[in-house]
């Protein structure tokens, strides 16, 4: 799954190049422990003809047509996101990217959960595939991060991981003209598993209130 991540480099260069918008920019601050139920930086097209923008959306997905008591998932499984009634409309028309430097997972060791930080070996920005939807409340549109079965070294920590897309998949993922599952699969691929590494970090990351502390991602 993906329930906590970090985005501190604020580097959108790969995305800017992919969508041919060299001035793509967002006035955001570094965050080292981003929890659900907060505003996060999301790259999307607000409508089919709009340019890609970096907007502040709510990490918690609940479509406007859903009941107020409906679930607000933070993740959507890659295996079912295109066919689920809850997610399919957004998968077709409202795909987005969540830039991140890495994410956290917890591994049970001797009865205690030890946090690990997972990131790219080359420290380039990860672009996590997501979907967004207009909500039926006063919050901005809501987002869910798509997850897939863990690959490579990520399997040592958790059985699932966020779907991080390769740089050449960014533009087609955001292209509203691709609406069918097979067509989208044909033009996108995930980051090579060999590019993902992880290390243990302090249990201070367990407290979601502190997201400005750069030491949270330091190896123990």
TrEMBL record:
Keyword 4Fe-4S among record annotations: no
Pfam families linked to this entry: SRAP (PF02586)
Keywords (A to Z) from UniProt: Covalent protein-DNA linkage, DNA damage, DNA-binding, Hydrolase, Lyase, Protease
KW DNA-binding (keyword) present: yes
Superkingdom per UniProt: Bacteria
EC number of this enzyme: 3.4.-.-
UniProt-listed InterPro entries: SRAP (IPR003738), SRAP-like (IPR036590)
SUPFAM superfamilies on file: BB1717-like
Cross-referenced PANTHER family: ABASIC SITE PROCESSING PROTEIN HMCES, DC12-RELATED
Protein family (similarity comment): Belongs to the SOS response-associated peptidase family.
Stated name of the protein: Abasic site processing protein
Source organism of the structure: Salinicola rhizosphaerae
């Amino acid at each position: 799954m993906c329930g906590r991540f970090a985005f501190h480099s604020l580097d959108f260069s790969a995305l800017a190049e992919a969508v041919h918008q060299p001035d793509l920019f967002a006035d955001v601050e570094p965050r080292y422990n981003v929890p659900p139920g907060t505003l996060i930086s999301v790259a999307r097209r607000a409508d089919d003809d709009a340019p890609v923008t970096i907007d502040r959306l709510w990490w918690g997905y609940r479509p406007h047509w859903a009941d107020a008591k409906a679930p607000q998932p933070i993740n959507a499984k890659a295996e079912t996101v295109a066919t689920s009634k809850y997610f399919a409309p957004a998968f077709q028309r409202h795909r987005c990217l969540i830039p991140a430097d890495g994410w956290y997972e917890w591994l049970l060791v001797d009865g205690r959960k030890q946090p690990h930080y997972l990131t790219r070996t080359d420290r380039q920005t990860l672009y996590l595939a997501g979907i967004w939807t207009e909500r039926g409340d006063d919050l901005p549109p809501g987002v869910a991060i798509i997850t897939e079965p863990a690959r490579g070294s990520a399997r040592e920590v958790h059985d699932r991981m966020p779907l991080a897309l390769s740089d050449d998949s960014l533009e087609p993922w955001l292209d509203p003209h691709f609406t069918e599952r097979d067509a989208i699969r044909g033009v996108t691929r995930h980051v090579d598993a060999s590019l993902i590494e992880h290390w243990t970090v302090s249990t201070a990351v367990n407290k979601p209130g502190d997201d400005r502390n750069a030491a949270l991602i330091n190896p123990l």
